[in-house]
């Protein structure tokens, strides 16, 4: 994917798609959405992390940096293959406009276990061979993940450092015994990942054939309770009891007076550098199997990161330390080639962050909602953009455009209304138009803004857990005809889509003068 061409797209997580099974997945609605994107001239579909969800239902606190979310495995293909009976929904059925994770997760896992049993009993020799071949290809991460999930199940969900000590420290004999004891459970988790990979690859191919690129999302940090940390504790700053001595986060800023204490363990960058950043190269390779490009979360942490003492309950106490910088990305590029990365360079950004991004030539991000708190020199105002940026009305961590207007300070609303010539009823279209007409190479909008929805439809509120975070879904009747029609016209008029959508003749290019 060329991140330096002029194009636009939609930010919509897979779980936000419609569907009968409680959460969006790689099923029929995903293909219908791809058709909708094509019809309104969009060339990018951006996802949030597709890894398994963690505490607070967040995809940014996953048990694996390599595995796919079981929730995204569509059930329809498993029924078509003959491995699963048509699912019977629980009573009452699932909500259509939000995911109730507490109800959906156990029900979906029951369906996947039934499908795994059906596969074992009914799959053809060719299907069994395809599964076994895939497991062999992905063994470098899959074996540890499957063992981790099997042991987590055997330990009733307890954190890995509270398992049997021999298993926590990965004693060779203990792992051999566990592999024999839990072989069937490991096989189940491998089957789920094979289904995820097969379905994700098929959807990506369908999108690519229609001129739509997939943009993924790579969190900078991994979760403490994860297969990654258990498999290689030496790559993280842990004590002899496998507890973090310091954790990740960001200092106090406009988003919160206490900062954000994420709690992720921090990397031993010196150890990773000594290994040629091989773990990172493997992780990016896995990402590029699922997506054509990806946004790398918290890019500033690669230039300098905020180290918080593990004993501190907030992010107020901490210090800045130098990150791995350009050598990390040079090592990954040497292993994989040119990297199609969008750098999430938001928050407290210093000169070293700008210098790193510019040295790598990665597009940065501009958020229109942030543009109206200053004067005409504000870096997020469209007239101050440079081409090498991705322009967003907002991200998954922001309110919707109309929600932002409702909660913004009066001065910000006045400035926005004057600058964009808009009001409460059309601020979402005004922001979309401004992003499309800007010089930024890429423009991306949350689906909520295309639909003109309010704050009750936002995806996530940073610094909070549970509630409605990560649960938003839309229904097709909400979309109708008009949003796609208007988006298609604006996209074409801004030079990012098919000019023919405007319904006017395509101007002939002027012939060069002959002398």
Task: Write out key terms for the chains shown.
four-stranded antiparallel sheet, about 525 residues, 20 helices, 12 strands, alpha/beta, eight-stranded parallel sheet
How would you explain this protein's 3D organization?
- By secondary structure, this protein is of the alpha/beta class.
- 40% of the residues lie in helices and 11% in strands.
- It has helices spanning 28-39, 76-80, 101-122, 125-137, 139-154, 165-168, 172-181, 183-209, 227-231, 269-274, 278-290, 300-303, 326-336, 351-360, 401-407, 410-420, 427-437, 447-450, 476-479, 482-493; strands at 7-11, 44-46, 213-218, 246-250, 260-265, 293-296, 304-309, 319-322, 341-343, 364-367, 389-392, 442-446.
- The longest helix has 27 residues, at 183-209.
- The chain is globular.
Secondary structure layout:
Layout: E1 7-11, H1 28-39, E2 44-46, H2 76-80, H3 101-122, H4 125-137, H5 139-154, H6 165-168, H7 172-181, H8 183-209, E3 213-218, H9 227-231, E4 246-250, E5 260-265, H10 269-274, H11 278-290, E6 293-296, H12 300-303, E7 304-309, E8 319-322, H13 326-336, E9 341-343, H14 351-360, E10 364-367, E11 389-392, H15 401-407, H16 410-420, H17 427-437, E12 442-446, H18 447-450, H19 476-479, H20 482-493
Parallel strand pairs: 1-2, 1-12, 2-3, 3-6, 6-9, 10-11, 11-12
Antiparallel strand pairs: 4-5, 4-7, 7-8
